[in-house]
TrEMBL record:
One GO MF term attached to the UniProt entry: GDP-mannose 4,6-dehydratase activity
Source organism: Anaerocolumna aminovalerica
EC number(s) given by UniProt: 4.2.1.47
Protein name (Swiss-Prot/TrEMBL): GDP-mannose 4,6-dehydratase
Family: Belongs to the NAD(P)-dependent epimerase/dehydratase family. GDP-mannose 4,6-dehydratase subfamily.
Length: 344
C-alpha cells in the first residue's frame, strides 16, 4: 500500500485525485493551511478517509514535517494561488506560493525521502504569447502574467532538481481543465452559475471580459489520471495534457445557455457587444472592460500526443459534456439555494 501526499487537496484537482488514489488503495495524506474555521472544501465528502496535516507552502519546516509524518511514496503538488487575475494584485504572494513553494516542497522531499516520486502542477499559462500552435513540450515559453511567470519558475526548478539531485520529479503542463467543483471566481464556473441564475430569474445578466480568448478545455477528472500515470513511469519526464481542441469564451457561453433552453444572439462589437436572449429580446450578456487582463493570452491549444503515446492517457469527457455537467450541477445548487432562502 503506497502513501501519497497531496498539497492543495481541498481544490478541484486535489479532490478528484484523492478519490482516484483512494480507489487504488493508497493511504492519502492532504496538506491544509491552518485557519480559524476548518474548511474541507471539495473533499468534505471523503474527509474521514484522508489523513490531514497542517502545513504551508511558504514554510519549509512544516513541509519537512509533513514528509516525515506521511512518508509519502508519491507527492502531488497542486497547491497554488491559482487565479490568474489575482496574480497582478498579489504578485509577491503568488511568487511565494507558486514559485518558492515548489522549491520548499522539493527540499522537503530531498531531506526526508529522496526516493519519493514528485508531481508538479505546471500550466499552459506558461506559453502565454504562444510561439507556435499547437503547443507541445518543446514549445518555447512566454508567460503573460505574474501567475504564469511564477509557475514557470516552479516548472524549471522541478526540472533542475531532477537533473541536479536525480530526484523522480516531473511536471504536467496542464491546459485549462474545469469541473463542477471549479470555484466561482473562474470564468467557466462564473458562466454556468450565471446562466442558471438568469434562467431561474434571480439574475439579470452576465458580465465578461475578452469573449474572443481561445482555450483548450478538458475535465479535471480526466486530467488527474494523467498526473497519476506520470508517477508510474520508469523515468520521470514532462508532459502536455490537453484536448487538442480550442474554443472561445463566446462558444462556452452559447453552449451553456443552450443547455437551459436559451439561444443567444450577439449584437455590436468590442466592449459594446451584447448577448440577447433570442426569445425575449432581453440583454443577458455584457462586456465589462475591468475583466480584461493587462496582458492578454489570446489562444492556448495543446498537443497531447506524447502523453497519449507514452502514458496511454486519453481524455474521456468531451467539451459539450463538460459544460452540460457544470450547468446541471449549478442548476441543482441554485435551485436548492432559492428553496432555502424562501423558507427563511
Amino acid at each position: 500500500m503506497k502513501n501519497a501526499l497531496i498539497t492543495g487537496i481541498t481544490g478541484q484537482d486535489g479532490s478528484y485525485l484523492a478519490e482516484l488514489l483512494l480507489e487504488k488503495g493508497y493511504n492519502v495524506y492532504g496538506i491544509m493551511r491552518r485557519k480559524s474555521v476548518v474548511d474541507y472544501g471539495n473533499v468534505d465528502h471523503i474527509k474521514d478517509k484522508i489523513n490531514f496535516i497542517y502545513a504551508d507552502m511558504t514554510d519549509v519546516i512544516s513541509l519537512i514535517n509533513a514528509m516525515i509524518i506521511s512518508q509519502a511514496d508519491e507527492v502531488y503538488n497542486l497547491a497554488a494561488q491559482s487565479f490568474v487575475a489575482t496574480s497582478w494584485e498579489q504578485p509577491i504572494a503568488t511568487a511565494d506560493i507558486n514559485a518558492l513553494g515548489v522549491t520548499n516542497m522539493l527540499e522537503a522531499i530531498r531531506t526526508v525521502k529522496p526516493s519519493a516520486h514528485f508531481y508538479q502542477a505546471s500550466t499552459s499559462e506558461m506559453f502565454g504569447l504562444v510561439q507556435e500552435i499547437p503547443q507541445k513540450e518543446t514549445t518555447p515559453f512566454y508567460p503573460r502574467s505574474p501567475y504564469g511567470v511564477a509557475k514557470l519558475y516552479g516548472h524549471w526548478i522541478t526540472k533542475n532538481y531532477r537533473e541536479s539531485y536525480n530526484l523522480y520529479a516531473c511536471s504536467g503542463i496542464l491546459f485549462n481543465h474545469e469541473s463542477e467543483r471549479r470555484g466561482k471566481e473562474f470564468v467557466t464556473r462564473k458562466i454556468t452559475d450565471a446562466v442558471v441564475r438568469i434562467k431561474l430569474g434571480v439574475q439579470d445578466h452576465l458580465e465578461l471580459g475578452n469573449m474572443d480568448s481561445k482555450r483548450d478545455w478538458g475535465h479535471s477528472k480526466d486530467y488527474v489520471k494523467a498526473m497519476w500515470l506520470m508517477l508510474q513511469q520508469e523515468t520521470p519526464d514532462d508532459y502536455v495534457i490537453a484536448t487538442n481542441e480550442t474554443r472561445t469564451v463566446r462558444e462556452f457561453v452559447e453552449i451553456a445557455f443552450n443547455h437551459v433552453g436559451i439561444t443567444v444572439e450577439w449584437q455590436g462589437t468590442g466592449v459594446d457587444e451584447i448577448g440577447i436572449d433570442k426569445t425575449t429580446g432581453k440583454t443577458i450578456v455584457k462586456i465589462n472592460p475591468k475583466f480584461f487582463r493587462p496582458a492578454e493570452v489570446d489562444i492556448l491549444l495543446g498537443d497531447p500526443t506524447k502523453a497519449e503515446t507514452v502514458l496511454g492517457w486519453k481524455r474521456e469527457i468531451p467539451f459539450a459534456n463538460l459544460v452540460e455537467r457544470m450547468v446541471k450541477n449549478d442548476m441543482e445548487l441554485v435551485t436548492r439555494e432559492i428553496k432555502i432562502s424562501k423558507l427563511n
